[in-house]
Q: What sequence folds into this?
């Protein structure tokens, strides 16, 4: 059975890395001794090794060790044999480019569809959707494709941000950007605020966390859904 | 001689479309009777026709008519024969994809290098740089390449935004994003705040407007330059 946590962010303001996700991680990774970490998004240009150390720190309390996917000679086999997978945030273009180059995007999809527990944060959540086309990141590299795993049948906008009241900045709001996406695409988009995550169990996708999420469907006015709502019908 | 205005934004908060740029436009388009408008960035999904009408409104006061590039059977020839060119803002991915598909990116470069006056705002400014890889826009479509005109020998980040003091949002600041760009690229980046523009005359590139601009060079701490500074050495 598919078991997935797709979180808007790894870290809440003023909290430790992954702190608010610990209860969800305990459930998702029950019985798991080692998680394979996908470090390719490299936030701030951090090295794969250093990023893996940071991830390991976040799993220590659960008694789970973390090994970076970049350390394996055969990453396809590493994913096949993984007890659990975690993809950290950073730059989504870099993450997607690297996964496609190494032929790993479909492998992630395949093993997670077969039941390997998966957690993503931010960029790692973006790749859970059908495409990365609702990322907030800068196109610092050119990926061979914008397609991602489609583990959920819609797109996600992590770090979803409401318009800032009184702002005099003329750049587009997040909502305007997602509406522009819908002038070119019909894929629904879940705007996931920091502190929210999607919990996938088999065919059920549930919004978790304290906040509502903002749903964008092509041709409809955006609307809010409460925590606890199921979202699999969006696909 | 190259004559270019690359503006951060078309519109300042509380002002009319293009209002603050009118003096610069008068100089740039001296003697010009008709400007060819490139509407492909389609802000908010507006039609090419409607966007061209908006642009025409911005040029009315100067006694200059505006014709949309999309109305020509032969847009390559239309650019060749243009007295002046204006590219409006919107989604940079859509603009760049369309220009590459139609084989127009190199044509814009070619005629502007030969002296056709060019003005860009926002996305239309992004394509003045070497690549579109420092855009703020969402990748709503997949362009065949991120390369742009290279009319200036660096990249531009329009709508440059300083970190918001006291923000508890954990998404990356603009500065963090540009620094991530420099983990993968060495192209210098000019962070152009709203109200600023670059004025290119031949080989001289001058920062105009009331504000400073923030310069990002790979391996250096970012720094501010005053209005009136020349920037051609960055290339």
A:
């Amino acid at each position: 059975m598919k078991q997935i946590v797709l979180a808007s962010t790894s870290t809440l303001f003023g909290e430790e890395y992954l702190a608010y996700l610990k209860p969800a991680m305990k459930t998702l990774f029950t019985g798991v001794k080692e998680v394979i970490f996908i470090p390719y998004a490299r936030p701030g240009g951090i090295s794969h090794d250093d990023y893996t150390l940071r991830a390991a720190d976040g799993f220590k309390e659960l008694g789970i060790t973390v090994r970076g996917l970049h350390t394996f000679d055969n990453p396809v086999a590493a994913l096949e044999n993984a007890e659990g997978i975690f993809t950290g945030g950073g730059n989504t273009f870099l993450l997607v480019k690297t996964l496609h180059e190494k032929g790993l995007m479909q492998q992630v999809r395949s093993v997670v569809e077969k039941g390997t527990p998966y957690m993503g944060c931010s960029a790692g959540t973006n790749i859970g959707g059908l495409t990365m086309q609702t990322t907030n990141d800068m196109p610092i590299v050119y990926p061979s494709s914008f397609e991602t795993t489609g583990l959920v049948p819609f797109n996600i906008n992590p770090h979803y941000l409401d318009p800032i009241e009184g702002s005099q900045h003329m750049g587009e709001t997040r909502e305007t950007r997602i509406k522009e996406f819908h002038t070119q695409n019909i894929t629904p988009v879940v705007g996931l605020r920091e502190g929210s995550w999607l919990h996938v169990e088999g065919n059920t996708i549930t919004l978790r966390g304290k906040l509502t999420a903002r749903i964008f469907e092509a041709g409809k006015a955006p609307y809010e859904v409460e925590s606890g709502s199921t979202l699999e019908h969006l696909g």
